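Extended Data, panel c. Modelled sequence:
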Amino acid sequence: MDTPVIVIGAGHSGLAISRCLTERSIDHLILERGEVAHTWRTERWDSLRLLTPNWQTRLPGFAYDGDDPDGFMTMPEVIDFIDRYAAKIDAPVLTGTAVLSLRRGDPGYEIATSNGTYRAKAVVLASGGFNLPKLPAVAADMPGRVESLTPATYRRADLLRDGGVLIVGASASGIQIADEVQRSGRRVTIAVGEHVRMPRTYRGRDIQWWMEVTGRLDERYDEVDDLVRARHVPSPQLVGTPDRMTLDLNALRNGGARLVGRIAAIDEGVAHLSGSLRNVCNLADLKLIRILDDFDEWAATTGVDHDVDASERFAPTIVPEAPQLSIGLHEFATVIWATGYRPDYSWLDIPVLDRKGDIRHDGGVVVSSPGLYRIGLNFLRRRKSSFIHGAEDDARDIVENLAGFLATGSVHPPQPADSAGS
C-alpha cells in the first residue's frame, strides 16, 4: 500500500504528528504494534503517576479539562487521555501492526509489517525513546539467585520476593520505586549515581511552573553548549503525588533507606562500590542551588516576587562520613535496575545510527536519509521534548519540514521556530 507519510507509533508523539499532518491535509497512516498508548498500558508500574501536573498535560488542539489541574494523572488516566485524543482527531491508526523492517525504497521507504508491506515518501519514527532497559555491564555478573527487574517489569512491592531490595539508580524511577518498596516494609539499599535533585514545589508553586514561566522548558537544542550532554542528563528526582511531596535522597534516608555509591564491579557475590557518593550528591546539591538562584533572579527581575512565597533552600544531601566500598549481595532477594532506557532500532535497516546506536538527526530531521524523521527523544528540539506537552511544538516543526520535503523533494536544515502553541 502506498501513502505519502507513515508514522510509526501511536503514543502521544505519533498522535501529535498525525494532528499536524491532518491540519495540512497530508494523507498518512499510523502503524502501531499494539493498541494506542501501548507502552503506557504495558510497561509502567501500577502506582506510577505523571511527573508533570495536569494543567501541563496537553497535545495539539487538546488539553486536560478535569477539576484537578494541580494533580498528577495515574496511568489509567493517561491512557484515557491519549485514547480520547486519538478519537477526537480521528487518527488513522492501524493497531496490531508491528514494524518488522524499514528500508529505503525506490523512491521513498518500504515498511515491512506483520500485516503486509507499505511504501511511503516520508516516515516519522514515533516509536518512543524508552523501549529497552539500558543496563550497565555489571548487571551480567549479578548472582542468578537475585531476581533482576527493571521499572518496565516491576509492578508493585507486594509481588517482590521476601528479602532486601537493591535499587540501582537514583533518578525519577529509582526514587519512586525505592519509596514504594520501603513503605512495604522491605529493607532498601540505593546505589546512587549521577542524578538531578529537584523539589516538587518551590516558593509555593510547582517546580514545573517555574521551569515553564522562566523559559527553561522552551530552550532549544541549538541554544545549548553541549547538546550531547543535555540529551543524556538523568531525569529529575520528581514524583507526582496528591500531597505534592518532595522525594529526594534525604527523604528516603530518613525513611530507612541505605545510600551507597555506584556499583563499579561484582565479584564472587560482592558488589564493589565507587567512592564517589559524596561527590555526586554534592554536585546535585550545587546544581539545585544554581537553578533556584536563577528562579529567584527571574522573580525579582519580572516583579513576580510579591506573588510567590519567600525564597527557600533545601538541606544538603546527607551521606555517610565513610561511604561503604562493598556490600554482600547475599543481603538481597531482588535488584531493580533503574538505570535508564534506550530506543529499539533493531528493525531499522538504514545506515543512520552512530557508533553508540543512537540515531543521527538534526532536531528530529535525519538529514542523511531525506524524508526520515524522529520525534519523542530527550531534548529532540527543546528541553521539554520528552514530556507530553513538549510534543506539540516539536511535531509542528517536524511537519513543517516534512511538508517542504514532500513539495520539493529536498531537505533543508531545520530552522528554529517560535514555540507555537506554548
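The first helix runs from residue 12 to 23. This feature is highlighted in the accompanying rendering.
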